[in-house]
């Protein structure tokens, strides 16, 4: 029907994986419905089942991805497939540091083509680094973990005190 536009993202230096929590896009015209895709570094493998999203508002729009528990490693793509003949006009920026990260293709059979620099699609990804395990302290509620043991120790102490009084 329509086609795809995508931006390739890379995790920050030192991060081996991250949880994708939000996709953002900037729409300038044409209210339309799109299908959201999250692709692995190969640009083909879907990291979650694609889903429809209504692009009603002009300006920045957020797509909450927290319930999908998407873990990304290395590079990944956030893509929008337009479902109508009319292409939803996304915002473009001229930031040269991001040049070469925007891609498009006409349909599923096509291969990705790089959007010519210095134009970049205004699609963004929000990620959070998952807690590390093994040698790194994670922020957790320690009292909730220790409370059952404290209760058991308190019960033993109360029984011991009661026995001494007899």
CATH topology: Hypothetical Protein Tm1070, Chain: A
User: How much of the polypeptide forms β-strand, as a percent range?
Assistant: 35-45%
Look at the helices and sheets and give the structural class.
Answer: mainly beta
The rough form would be described as: globular
List the helices and strands and how they pair.
Elements: E1 3-10, E2 18-27, E3 32-39, E4 51-55, E5 59-64, E6 70-72, E7 75-82, E8 92-93, E9 102-105, E10 113-114, E11 120-121, E12 123-128, H1 142-165
Structure at a glance:
By secondary structure, this protein is mostly beta strands. The protein has a single domain (3-128), classed as Sandwich (Hypothetical Protein Tm1070, Chain: A), CATH 2.60.290.
Structural summary, described in words:
The protein has about 170 residues and is mainly β. It has a single domain (about 5-130), classed as Sandwich (Hypothetical Protein Tm1070, Chain: A). It is built from 1 helix and 12 strands, in the order ββββββββββββα. The protein has one helix at about 140-165, and strands spanning about 5-10, 20-25, 30-40, 50-55, 60-65, 70, 75-80, 90-95, 100-105, 115, 120, 125-130. A 6-stranded antiparallel sheet has the order 4-3-7-1-9-10, with no helix packed on it. A hairpin with a 7-residue loop joins strand 9 (about 100-105) and strand 10 (about 115). The radius of gyration is 24 Å and the shape is globular. The protein starts with a strand and ends with a helix. The relative contact order is 0.26.
């Amino acid at each position: 029907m329509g086609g795809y536009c995508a931006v390739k993202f890379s995790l920050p230096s030192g991060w081996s994986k991250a949880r994708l929590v939000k996709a953002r896009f900037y729409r300038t015209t044409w209210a339309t419905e799109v299908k959201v895709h999250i692709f692995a570094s190969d640009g083909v493998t879907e990291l979650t089942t694609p889903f429809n999203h209504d692009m009603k508002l002009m300006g920045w729009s957020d797509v909450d991805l927290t319930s999908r528990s998407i873990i990304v490693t290395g590079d990944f793509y956030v893509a929008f497939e337009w479902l109508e003949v009319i292409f939803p006009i996304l915002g473009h920026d001229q930031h040269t540091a991001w040049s070469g990260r925007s891609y498009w293709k006409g349909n599923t059979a096509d291969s990705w083509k790089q959007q010519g620099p210095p134009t970049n699609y205004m699609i963004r990804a929000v990620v959070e680094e998952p807690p590390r395990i093994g040698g790194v302290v994670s922020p957790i509620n320690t009292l909730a973990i220790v409370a059952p043991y404290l209760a058991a120790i308190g019960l033993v102490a109360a029984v011991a005190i009661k026995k001494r009084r007899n």
